[in-house]
Amino acid sequence: MADLIPFDDRDGRIWYNGTLIPWPDCRPHVLSHGLHYASCVFEGERSYGGRIYKLHEHSERLIESGRLLGFEIPYTADEIDAACVETCRANGIVDGYVRPVAWRGSEMMAVSAQHTKIHVAIATWPWPSYFSPDLRRKGISLRTSDWRRPAPDTAPTRSKAAGLYMICTLSKHAAEAEGFADALMLDHRGQVAEATGANIFFVMGDGRLHTPTPDCFLDGITRRTVIALARGMGIEVVERPILPDELAAATEAFLTGTAAEVTPVGRIDGHRYTPGAITQALIDAYEAEVGKA
Fold first, then answer.
1. Which among 41, 137, 211, 222 is least surrounded, fewest beta carbons within 10 Å?
2. 128: Cα separation from own chain's centroid
3. pLDDT tens figures, 228-263
4. CATH fold for the domain made of 133-290
């Protein structure tokens, strides 16, 4: 598309292995292990009013994700925190998105790569909303994907690893081709898991908030925040296996994630939902929590 601004050709600076460098100069080698063998982890964070929300939790998760992929990120969580703040300041980001990423370098080009250097970069840019305001008002539409989240004994499912998002891209592309905004992914057992980049919640007929148990997909930081907000408001939250047959019994549905924030769902396949009081209350509570309200 002609109006897209490529992410490799923008103004600003990127924090790269401890130094702020001009944005276009941050070019890892094409033979980096992270590109060929998916030995790469990342985070997605948001800055609201000049404050990166739950920054330290994200930095700790980045380090843990690297550990789960068998490598040690050469910075502490405090050092990554400081680098994220420094990068936002360098780019004048007050309200925007923050993307730390760590990957194995190009010293070894084979499946075995214990002696590769671990690189770390942090980029920041303005990003107001993952879904358009119109979609968010009426609720987005989801199509159930043909791809499933893998079992925890087949992939490092507790890590925010780049390779785990390959099936998310395939699922979202297929959904968008059919006029949906995103895809609902089932897990390896055929149970409801999540969307392609966000966790999912349902208000059932019992008035309680139900969400899948994150035993083979990421237990999102925003997910945990919304659960705490709901319980603080006296809303009972039930974490349990949810089967696709149960979607017809839901009265409200919404997604949670750093990018999605709290986004109402208006349709999943042939099931229709109306964003209701509980969804709106949690949208308001989350916006107040992050300082957006």
1. 137
2. 15
3. 999 999 999 999 999 999 999 999 999 999 999 999
4. D-amino Acid Aminotransferase; Chain A, domain 2 (3.20.10)
- In the chain, which residues fall in CATH 3.20.10.10? 133-290
What pLDDT, on a 0 to 100 scale, did the predictor assign at position 170? 98
Active-site residue flag, 172: no
| Helix, strand, coil percent content, the chain, rounded in steps of 5 | 30, 30, 40
Per-residue pLDDT tens over the stretch 72-118: 999 999 999 999 999 999 999 999 999 999 999 999 999 999 999 99
Which residues neighbour 291 within 8 Å (Cβ) at sequence distance 6 or greater?
Answer: 48, 49, 51, 53
Nearest to 199 by CA among 133, 149, 153: 149
Q: What is the CATH number of domain 13-125?
A: 3.30.470.10
**63 and 74 in contact (C-beta within 8 Å)?**
no
Q: Mean pLDDT throughout 153-166? A: 97
Q: Give me the catalytic one of 54, 160, 172, 292.
A: 160
How far are the Cα atoms of 39, 152, 153, 263 from residue 112, in angstroms, in the given order?
11, 22, 20, 41
Give start-end residues of each CATH 3.30.470.10 domain in the chain.
13-125
Record the pTM: 0.95
Q: How far apart are CA 255 and CA 290, in angstroms?
A: 17
